[in-house]
Design brief:
Radius of gyration: 13 Å
Number of strands: 10
Order of helices and strands: EEEEEEEEEE
Helix content: under 10%
Length: about 110
């Protein structure tokens, strides 16, 4: 199983970033995929999750209306479009295969005020 995040970076408050997660080594179509984040000194937070096939999507209250998750099963990719970024969104973002501890190396997102 391999999950590789990309697209992180430094952005000012109010800016946007798009994270990508490239998955391989498992039946991508069969699994929900989620994004979570980890900020220094804070607990891990589940940000968003997209189901494998029926379109169900979850967003944490903290990102509703600002983040959009999507997936492309043909490309084994999951995306997280992040708009109106706040300093509280700063952290390392990971994509994770549902029901497992399989995750990528993370993408650093830093939002400066």
């Amino acid at each position: 199983v391999q999950l590789v995040e990309s697209g992180g970076g430094l952005v000012q408050t109010g800016g946007s970033l798009r994270l990508s997660c490239a998955a391989s080594g498992f039946g991508f179509d069969d699994y929900d995929i989620g994004w979570f984040r980890q900020a220094p000194g804070k607990e891990r937070e589940g940000v968003s999750c997209v189901s494998s096939s029926d379109g169900r999507i979850y967003y944490a209250d903290s990102v509703k209306g600002r983040f959009t998750i999507s997936r492309d099963n043909a490309k084994n990719m999951v995306y997280l479009q992040m708009n109106s970024l706040k300093s509280s969104d700063t952290g390392v973002y990971y994509c994770q295969k549902d029901g497992s501890n399989d995750r990528g190396q993370g993408a650093q997102v830093t939002v400066s005020s």
